[in-house]
């Protein structure tokens, strides 16, 4: 009887799968066709990688209407396990601390703690975002700071309004249990930029990005 030697998958295959996960993370739920185009591979090749990633529990398939309209289509999104493959910070410790604060002093105390944190962060960043600077310049400075801290942020302007996108939430475990963290984040951005900030989507709610409208 001849033994069968199982070789590890080629490095290029693993790089393609990693890139595929990064695309879903950055752009949100994607169709196989969209991913094939972004990766510049055939649709059958993309589907093979997607099936492997589903088997590993990193991706899930679901049906969505693009933009809330049109015909339903099958898209691939990150599972919790897939999300965990990307950087997260201080999650379990922070959740434990906030839980104890809430148990000892009430839910309002959590907001007070997050408010004090905002005050400290704003004090550090305010000199880098002077009110006299153009709004676009201040937004891009904030984007650079957020990206440095793991948010994979970007900004763009449409019809005179700025939009801030966060492709990663380094505090996802905390944000899922304490919506106050996301509320404090919006408040901090508005304070630093000196204009109203409204959030349209939230990673902690299962959406692909955190999307803020500025001004």
TrEMBL record:
Tell me the superkingdom of the source.
Bacteria
Q: Which Pfam families match?
A: MarR_2
Listed InterPro entries: ArsR-like_HTH (IPR011991), Carb_Metab_HTH_regulators (IPR050313), HTH_MarR-typ (IPR000835), WH-like_DNA-bd_sf (IPR036388), WH_DNA-bd_sf (IPR036390)
Q: Which SUPFAM superfamilies match?
A: Winged helix' DNA-binding domain (SSF46785)
HTH marR-type domain: from which residue to which, for each copy? Answer: 15-69
Protein's name according to its UniProt entry? MarR family transcriptional regulator
Q: Highest lineage ranks of the organism?
A: Bacteria, Thermotogati, Deinococcota, Deinococci, Deinococcales
């Amino acid at each position: 009887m001849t033994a069968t030697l199982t070789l590890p998958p080629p490095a290029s295959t693993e790089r393609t799968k990693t890139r595929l996960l990064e695309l879903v993370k950055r752009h949100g739920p994607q169709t196989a066709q969209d991913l094939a185009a972004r990766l510049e591979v055939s649709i059958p090749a993309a589907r093979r990688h997607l099936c492997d990633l589903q088997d590993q529990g990193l991706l899930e398939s679901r049906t969505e209407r693009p933009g809330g309209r049109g015909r339903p289509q099958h898209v691939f999104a990150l599972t919790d396990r897939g999300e965990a493959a990307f950087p997260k910070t201080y999650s379990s410790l922070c959740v434990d601390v906030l839980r104890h604060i809430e148990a000892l002093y009430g839910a309002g105390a959590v907001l007070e703690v997050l408010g004090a944190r905002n005050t400290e962060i704003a004090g550090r960043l305010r000199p880098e975002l002077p009110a006299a600077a153009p709004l676009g310049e201040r937004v891009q400075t904030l984007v650079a700071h957020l990206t440095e801290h793991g948010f994979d942020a970007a900004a763009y302007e449409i019809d005179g309004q700025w939009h801030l996108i966060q492709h990663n939430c380094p505090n996802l475990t905390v944000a899922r249990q304490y919506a106050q963290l996301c509320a404090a984040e919006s408040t901090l951005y508005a304070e630093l930029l000196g204009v109203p900030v409204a959030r349209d989507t939230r990673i902690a709610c299962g959406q692909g990005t955190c999307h803020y409208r500025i001004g």
